[in-house]
User: Fold this.
Amino acid sequence: MTEATPLLDVQGLGIRFGGLDAVKDVTAVIPAGQITAIIGPNGAGKSTFFNLISGFYQPTAGTIRFQGEDITRLRTHEVVARGIARTFQTTTIYRELSVLDNAMIGHRVRTRAGLWDALLRTGRERKDEAESRAGAMQALERVGLAGRAHLPAGALTQEGQKRVGIAMALSSDPKLLLLDEPAAGMNPEETVNLMALIRELVTGGLSVALVEHKMSLVMGLADQILVLHHGQKIAQGTPAQVSRDPAVVSAYLGSHAHGGQMGHGAAAGADAQGTGGEAGHA
Ligand SMILES: Nc1ncnc2c1ncn2[C@@H]1O[C@H](COP(=O)(O)OP(=O)(O)OP(=O)(O)O)[C@@H](O)[C@H]1O
Assistant:
């Protein structure tokens, strides 16, 4: 990988479900060391985009390159091994198990072909266990939960449980972390704490891409925003650029009646002074 090679580079990416183009012809770059937000009205294809990048879905068109390597056809655990990990909209946390055990499960599921595969490889159990424990402990330190490693996960607050979910993804020590609606269900104070955590992780060298409806988080955190609408990229730029891009505003206004959420004042609030250039259209 040269200096100029982007961390993640998707070209003409698409997937069709029956007659529906859930993601269509998306070309975008996710740079290293930054926070990239993927936004768009409900059903725009954001989660599907994440599912494509993380190997959960196989694209029907296009390529995905990570650090210069073609990862388009890799399976999930192979993608993880290259350095991409993700959280889910609703992370399953085992409430009765300790925080550490949860993070260890995250490590195993992500570094093996699957949980059952991990469980059945009993011969390698001890080495695996030590590796998972070390990876999980490091991840817990990064999310500020090392001191609570031995508490049952269910004893943590909602915010603490979110941190466990992030630690589960971090336990494989990814270079790129994909966060799917990390602030869902969080109150404003928790959202602010989460934003601080994401910033810290990026300062520590991680690159982050996130899907999020909460515009306060997106506008306050993202270095760049990629906007999807009906599966297609309609804009990419800084928060200031994107929030006053006519195509973006109209996509959100058009979808507002159907549950679009940019109507929470984000478009106006992010760049009241009108500074910054125009968003780059797809
Ligand atoms: N596995 C699937 N099979 C069929 N259709 C799917 C599948 N996954 C997603 N879709 C469809 O693809 C479109 C994009 O869905 P997706 O969940 O990616 O949107 P989104 O932007 O994440 O929406 P939201 O903000 O509501 O989570 C939707 O019309 C959805 O119904």
Observations:
- Confidence is low (pLDDT under 50) at residues 257-261, 263-282.
